[in-house]
């Protein structure tokens, strides 16, 4: 436990579903400080407790370091973590803003290294019987190593879960994932009209499939057969690989989250032809 008086809270640098993130100081080092919106009795505080539990259970050089928990004077839960200022989302937006005549910020070797590190980190998490469930550019931090190259650090395990299978399948109690990076079966789960935990197979019915224009996309039966949440992470990894190679956001022409989910469910995927010059010709359509 970290004494709150030992923390120096600086500028706000981000916000998520469970709290706001600040840059700060602790024991002379720069840290990221995540503070719950409400006090310790609120739901978002319990989500931060869950994230702290997941981070404390993992020990990998490509996962953000967790230093400890604290409590603010007004009763808010506080997570103290390693601070890395750059994420893949910011990097992509920065590259999209530059002139088309400028060489891309990631060469093929750089993109390949980042994707490989992501895959290795995900393999470690799965080996610990956990799933991340929210792989996206904002949760992939980028830092420069001693070799001068960019390397990844995976963060935000607020949605991560242990992979314990019950008699009816894997059970989830809340919405998970981010549109554009979650697979069709996760979209079905999100649309399930119930407040009770359900197995993936239970929510894969014809009504939900037709709501997404199931013809030509994922069939009801194929979704029902996919009840391994590790595969959900693999889907997100594939989209992240495309982002690293193309330096663009997937489904950038979608009109919103619902449209993005519809595109994913109907079988649309980011087009390799839209990739930048970093992508080898063999991967283009």
UniProtKB/TrEMBL annotation:
Q: Please name the InterPro entries in this protein's record.
A: Kinase-like_dom_sf, Prot_kinase_dom, Ser/Thr_kinase_AS, Ser/Thr_Kinases-Pseudokinases
Tell me the protein's name.
Answer: Protein kinase domain-containing protein
GO terms (molecular function) for this protein are: ATP binding; protein serine/threonine kinase activity
Cross-referenced PANTHER family: SERINE/THREONINE-PROTEIN KINASE TNNI3K-RELATED (PTHR44329), SERINE_THREONINE-PROTEIN KINASE VIK (PTHR44329:SF289)
Annotated Pfam families: Pkinase
What region holds the Protein kinase domain? 7-285
């Amino acid at each position: 436990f970290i004494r709150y008086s030992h923390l120096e809270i600086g500028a706000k640098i981000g916000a998520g579903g469970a709290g706001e993130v600040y840059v700060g100081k602790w024991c002379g080092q720069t840290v990221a400080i995540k503070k719950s919106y409400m006090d310790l009795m609120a739901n978002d505080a319990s989500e931060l407790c869950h994230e702290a539990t997941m981070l404390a259970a993992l020990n990998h050089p490509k996962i953000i370091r967790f230093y400890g928990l604290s409590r603010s004077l007004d009763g808010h839960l506080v997570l103290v973590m390693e601070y890395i200022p750059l994420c893949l989302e910011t990097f992509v937006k920065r590259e999209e803003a530059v002139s088309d005549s400028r060489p891309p910020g990631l060469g093929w070797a750089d993109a390949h290294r980042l994707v490989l590190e992501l895959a290795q980190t995900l393999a470690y998490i799965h080996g610990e019987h956990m799933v991340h469930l929210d792989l996206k550019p904002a949760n992939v931090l980028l830092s420069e190593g001693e070799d001068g190259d960019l390397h990844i650090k995976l963060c935000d395990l607020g949605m991560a879960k242990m992979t314990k299978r019950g008699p009816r399948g894997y059970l989830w109690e809340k919405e998970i994932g981010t549109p554009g990076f979650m697979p069709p079966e996760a979209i079905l789960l999100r649309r399930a009209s119930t407040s009770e935990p359900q197995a993936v197979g239970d929510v894969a019915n014809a009504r939900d499939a037709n709501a997404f224009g199931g013809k030509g996309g994922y069939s009801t039966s194929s979704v029902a057969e996919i009840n391994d949440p590790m595969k959900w992470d693999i889907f997100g990894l594939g989209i992240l690989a495309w982002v690293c190679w193309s330096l663009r956001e997937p489904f950038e022409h979608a009109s919103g989250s619902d449209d993005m989910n519809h595109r994913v469910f109907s079988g649309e995927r980011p087009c390799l032809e839209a990739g930048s010059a970093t992508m080898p010709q063999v991967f283009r359509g």
